[in-house]
Amino acid sequence: MRQLTASDLMDIRTLVARHFVALSVEIVGLEASGVGASEAQSLVDAGILSPEAMGALDPIKDAYTLGFLRRRLEQAGMDPKTISLDDLHAMIERDPMPTTNAATAAIQQARLWAGQHVVGIAGTVAGDIIRELALEAKGEGLRGAIGEQTASAMEARETYGALRTRLGDAAGQWSKDWLRVATTEMHEAQEQGYAQELGNTFGADARVALIPNPDACKHCRRLTVANGRPIIRRLSELVANGSNVGRKAADWKAVVGSIHPYCACRLVYVPEGMEFNEKWLLVATP
To answer: Are the beta carbons of 210 and 254 closer than 8 angstroms?
Structure first.
């Protein structure tokens, strides 16, 4: 038996990273993950990535398209939240979403952001695992070898148990990170798609409002509600505000998409001559 070497640690890091790259492909798609065809094929050959994921899965584009179709779904009395992926694809086949430069750019930007976040988390997880292995090796004389069951089997069971506990604690944060990315980026893509449809139909100065959830944070309520009613703005204003990424909370603005991670504020169209009453229902302006 021997201690883990720097080379062993790097091999383990690579193995972990490859698994998380495969996971990112499954979650946000091949293109968003920045994975080339040859790398993806190598993951399939290694049994890390399912062959199906090499196909046409594109969750970010699907979310954007669902947002683009949201208004007409609601007009038809359908709840977009209940639409299955197969139903969505069938609708697109019957009534394709117009392919514009703006839509293409928005989808690509959404893929880029989601891919960066997912790959970033993968790197963090791999780094955390290697750091724990290195700490165990340094502090407790960890002995490791290539085991029969896993690529990084620990022969010292008591050491493995301690390591598993610490990594289990860290896994809670990793799970939260995955949930944050999935929730935020899919919401962002869907809202961008909805904004694109509104702009195409009613123009850049379409009247819109952001509707916060009942449990919305103080920042969302500050930016979306005034005098107890949703604030009506022009779509062009929200678009011009860009993204709140990199801004301090005090400097956040009302934007198309997520005001902050986990944000669930939804963009709605407000026809000319309409306003919100105290119950947040649209009524004719007196």
So the answer is: yes
Closest to 174 (Cα-Cα) out of 126, 132, 130, 111:
126
Report helix, strand or coil for 94.
helix
| Distance between CA atoms of residues 81 and 64, nearest Å | 13
Q: Is the pTM of this model over 0.90?
A: no
Per the CB < 8 A criterion, the answer to whether 178 and 151 are in contact is no
132 CB neighbour count, 10 Å cutoff: 17
Q: How far apart are CA 144 and CA 165, in angstroms?
A: 17
In percent, the amount of the chain with pLDDT more than 90 equals: 25
**Cα three-residue angle 81-82-88, rounded to 5 degrees:** 90
* pLDDT averages per 10-residue partition of the chain, 286 residues: 62 72 72 74 83 69 80 78 76 71 70 65 66 57 37 43 51 62 78 89 93 92 95 96 90 93 90 93 90
Widest CA span in the chain = 84
Question: How far, in Å, CA of 127 to CA of 205, rounded?
Answer: 47
The C-alpha atoms of residue 87 and residue 162 are separated, in whole angstroms, by 47
Rounded to whole angstroms, what are the CA distances from 267 to 53, 232, 263? Answer: 32, 10, 12
Q: Which of 85, 102, 82, 104 is nearest to 93 (CA)?
A: 85
